[in-house]
Amino acid sequence: MQTISTVKKAILTAVCIALCVVLPQAFHAIPNAGSIYLPMHIPVLLCGLICGWPFGLLCGLAGPLLSSLFTGMPPAAYLPPMAVECAAYGCVSGILTRFVRTKNTYADLYICLIGAMLSGRVIAGLARALIFAGGSYSMAAWATGYFVTGLPGIVIQLVLLPVIVSALMRAGLIPARYPEVRSDG
């Protein structure tokens, strides 16, 4: 099985972290676009899917932090729960990518994405309820904030990310998940 070198993973992670700063800037011209379209989640999930959990975790922590430092978004009060959420996305998508093997690339990608997206939302909701909001966080606020408001972003991620990963595989920029076995006979 082909793997990506650590240097290439580091470079891809740096690109994804940079996208965590740049992509939200493109969306924030629209009011509340960050919470609706979830632009920072795309590079974090992509990093986890391609580079694995340690790099996905790093991207999930560094992306929101650097974006906050350079652009003021997310605001300091929202940074800790956002970092927890993104770190969970990057970490869980990388872990699932390593272990989910259905022999179908798209099935693998959807299982990994949905698993990471649900896990990240649960972990972020628990962190908010137990740590950041001090008991004043309700189930309704969690469901609204993480599922209802962000539904357009969830759809974008589910459509866009498998296409991007598949295109990178077809282009030979990352190893194919299930390389074709060729018979020369």
Give an overview in words:
By secondary structure, this protein is mostly helical. It has one domain: Arp2/3 complex 21 kDa subunit ARPC3. Helices cover 74% and strands 0% of the residues. It contains eight helices and no strands. Helix 3 (41-51) packs antiparallel against helix 4 (53-71). The longest helix is centred in the middle third of the chain and has 28 residues, at 105-132. The model has no long low-confidence stretch (mean pLDDT 92).
Which stretches of 5+ consecutive residues score pLDDT under 50? none
Cα Rg: 17 Å
- Output the helix-strand order: HHHHHHHH
How many individual β-strands?
0
By CATH, the topology is Arp2/3 complex 21 kDa subunit ARPC3
Beta-strand share of residues: under 5%
Report the biggest beta sheet as strand number plus sense, adding barrel if it closes.
none
Name the CATH class: Mainly Alpha
Indicate the percent of residues in helices: over 70%
Structural class: mainly alpha
Query: What is the CATH architecture annotation?
Result: Orthogonal Bundle
Instruction: Count up the helices.
Output: 8
In one word, what is the shape? globular
Helices and strands, with pairings:
Blueprint: H1 6-27, H2 33-37, H3 41-51, H4 53-71, H5 79-99, H6 105-132, H7 139-148, H8 151-170
